[in-house]
Amino acid sequence: MFADITLPIPFDSFTYLVPSDMESRVMRGCRVVVSLGKNKIYTGVVLRTHDKAPEGVEIKPILEVLDEHPVVNEQQFAFWQWIANYYLCPLGDVMKAGLPGAMKPKDEKALKESSRKRKGKGAGDMEQEDTPSSNISLASSSLPLAPFSPAQQTAMNSIEEAFLTKNVTLLHGVTSSGKTEIYIHLIDKYLRQGKQVLYLLPEIALTTQITERLRRVFGDSMGVYHSKFTDAQRLDVYKRQASSLPYQLILGVRSSIFLPFQNLGLVIVDEEHEQSYKQQEPAPRYHARNAGIMLAHMFKAKTLLGTATPSFEVYHLAHKNRYGYVRLTQRFRDMQLPTIEVVDTKEAKRKKQMKGAFSPRLIEAMKEALERKEQIILFQNRRGFSSFIECKTCGWVPRCPHCDVTLTLHKKTSTLTCHYCGYTAHIPERCPACEENKFMDIGTGTEKIEEQIAQIFPEATTLRMDLDTTKTRGQYERIINDFSTHQADILIGTQMVTKGLDFDHVSVVGILDADTMLNLPDFRSYERTFQTLSQVAGRAGRNNTAGLVILQTRSADSDIIRQITQNDYWQMFYAQMTERQLFHYPPFRRLIYVYLRHKDDHLLEHLADEMAQRLRAVFGDRVLGPDRPPIARIQSLYIRKIMLKMELQASADKVRQTLIAIQQQMLSLPIAKNLNIYYDVDPL
Ligand code: ADP
Ligand code: ZN
Ligand code: ZN
Question: What value does the mean pLDDT of the chain take?
């Protein structure tokens, strides 16, 4: 007997011999331990057993069977396969993402540990079905649900009506319109019918604020799944979901789509427009919203997508009546949406009125808020002190030795850091090019803003929230907690501060520079800017405090800025869609990026040309490139990108087969040793 085993490496599967004493135990969905190559040990999952001996290869035996019962069910296998096919990656990559780390011990030590624990019935164990210690009441409303507003009741009715004919519905409600409360009612309804619910949130929005809010209603029937949890915690949730008494509600981040479900009835994707739903690195480069819709489809379940600023992909389908569409235009308790005032920084600069990054109008608004003891959020979408430093004498700029980028100055730690690979260097005392010792810093990051505030408002207390100050989950929660208990007046942050946070006393939001986002060379930059700025503006005036947003920009009279200030999503959508259609971009076409990576730039150039040529022979002018991406070298590997713009009706299967065939041709070229090819489907 033989078994095809998926291992957590970029291949579909490998065939192993099943020793006769294991024959009754090697089942599809069970984990086994195998060796690969000379001395690698892996935990894999049995895909299938058969009696066809593979030809011409040495066949190794399975070393150990870890489970008595399958730990991956048929629905998960189908879902894994869909991900592998759609996102063009080997099944092994999906398995790696799909199982919590603790289920894939890979070195001898970890394996011994897991087998010791297994014998002692410990954490590595998937054989026994735990009876959860907590009490579960299936539809357990610990607290009565909140008294709906008429607008919420209407929205709820519309969602249920839409679900009669549509599998997916978009809830498009302005910030603070009470969407979360609607989710809660809907979840309650599904749980009462004995159905499971998966509630997806962007990682950054999964805070104790929201967990506690839901815990009060759903008590122990809710499980939380966060990527920052320990391996053991994630294993616990997985085990529980695979047991006969699973959580009825999972509140989780994108990877929770890989948990086992048994009777999923509803998937909620909150903040569906959020880019972080797309996994960028490593493969599988899946989009949790789209994969969540597919997961729901496999269970004949419904999907509710919620946001104040829909992605074009979703809004387009709602507009075409493929998805249901429900709108909430008023904030809860008829709170006013914040007023957005535009400040022309080009003008202010010309008149020499700017104090660092601050216009007189922003300073005035902040001063008034501070006098009224209200809080302020400042949004600057760049961390560090300055984007880079430059020698005043000769113009030399320090760059990362491994990546094609300048190093960012971090003044607090006196370092220069690469934001792509983490390379860190000291600030040089003298310029290595001309030996002079005067540098100037170019560009503004959150650290510089912090320093300028200390000068303009020496009395005010500040908190800074960016990647550097939130290395751990605890630090992140602490900043949120400190700010919501008013232990600081001003919160300065990158786009982290734009994500669904709910603070009661914020009356002023300052957007220091809208232009960096607008000017990114990306066909989505206007859509993104609209989303991000509307979201950050939505942090103002959420609870009985009138909100004011000061938006500083050099393009004060552009259409996009007007659309943002008037909260005119439709105009923005309409204008952008015309361009998208004209230039064959999503949602009118499906994009696939083909990436090639190699250490040798010249060789890569040649290989990328070759691959593009072969692709063109099949796909014609749907193929663009190869091009150097904006960051053309990361961690010492050079990168080329080939873009495919496929018609929506093109068969995904055929496209996949063609791509894989061409990839294999390329990799079999003798000069293509060490060439790495991968895909990004529906890239963001
Ligand atoms: P959104 O998710 O649209 O941003 P939320 O659901 O968080 O909005 O609601 C905004 C605020 O209004 C929250 O503080 C919430 O507690 C409150 N709220 C919303 N709906 C109700 C309700 N039906 N009863 C009481 N408070 C509500
Ligand atoms: Zn110099
Ligand atoms: Zn680097």
Answer: 92
Determine if ligand 1 sits within 6 Å of the CB of residue 177.
Answer: yes
**Residue 274 clears pLDDT 70, i.e. is over it:** yes
Q: Give the pLDDT mean for 512-521.
A: 91
Instruction: Answer yes or no: is the C-beta of 173 below 6 A from any ligand 1 atom.
Output: yes
Does the beta carbon of 663 sit less than 6 angstroms from any atom of ligand 1? no
Q: Return the half-sphere exposure (C-beta side, CA atoms, 13 A cut-off) of residue 237.
A: 28
Q: Whose CA is nearest to atom 19 of ligand 1?
A: 178
Check whether 410 has a pLDDT greater than 90. yes
Structure tokens at 76: 């998960």
Contact of 527 with 576, CB cutoff 8 Å: yes
pLDDT digits (tens, 9 = 90+) for 285-309: 999 999 999 999 999 999 999 999 9
pLDDT in the model for residue 187: 98
Q: For ligand 1, atom 6, which residue shows the shortest CA distance?
A: 178
SS3 67: coil
Give the H or E element holding residue 465: strand 462-465
Cβ(152) – ligand 1 distance below 6 Å: yes
Ligand 1 atom showing the smallest separation from residue 500 Cα: 4
**Residue ranges with strand state E in 487-532:** 490-493, 506-511
Q: Whose CA is nearest to atom 26 of ligand 1?
A: 146
Neighbours of 387 (CB within 10 A): 20
Q: Report which bound ligand comes closest to the CA of 309.
A: 1
- In ligand 1, the atom with minimum distance to the C-alpha of 182 is 6
d(CA 427, CA 429): 6
Give residue 105's Cα distance to chain centre.
Answer: 26
User: pLDDT for 361-375, tens place per residue?
Assistant: 999 999 999 999 999
- What was the pLDDT predicted at 333? 84
d(CA 532, CA 526): 10
> Which pair of structure tokens corresponds to residue 505?
């006393």
Instruction: Reply yes or no on whether the pLDDT at 132 is more than 70.
Output: no
User: For position 123, what pLDDT does the model report?
Assistant: 38
Instruction: Return phi, psi of residue 174, to 5°.
Output: -55, 160
Structure tokens at 176: 């603070």
pLDDT digits (tens, 9 = 90+) for 442-463: 999 999 999 999 999 999 999 9
- Looking at the CA of residue 538, tell me the nearest atom of ligand 1: 4
Q: Closest Cα to atom 17, ligand 1: which residue?
A: 178
206 alpha carbon – ligand 3 mean position (Å): 30
Q: Is the CB of 176 under 6 A from ligand 1?
A: yes
Closest atom of ligand 1 to 148 CA is 23
pLDDT at 122: 40
* Ligand 1, atom nearest to 173 Cα: 3
User: CA 197 from chain center: how many Å?
Assistant: 20
- 502 pLDDT band, cuts 50/70/90, is confident
Is residue 114 within 8 Å of residue 167, measured between CB atoms?
Answer: no
Per-residue pLDDT at 499: 78
Unique residue bearing structure tokens 């869909």: 82
Residue closest by Cα to atom 15 of ligand 1 = 178
Q: Which ligand is nearest to the CA of 175?
A: 1
Q: What is the pTM of this model?
A: 0.93
pLDDT of residue 116: 56
- H or E element: which one contains 295? helix 288-298
Strand order in the sheet with 375-379: 339-344, 548-553, 506-511, 375-379, 490-493, 462-465
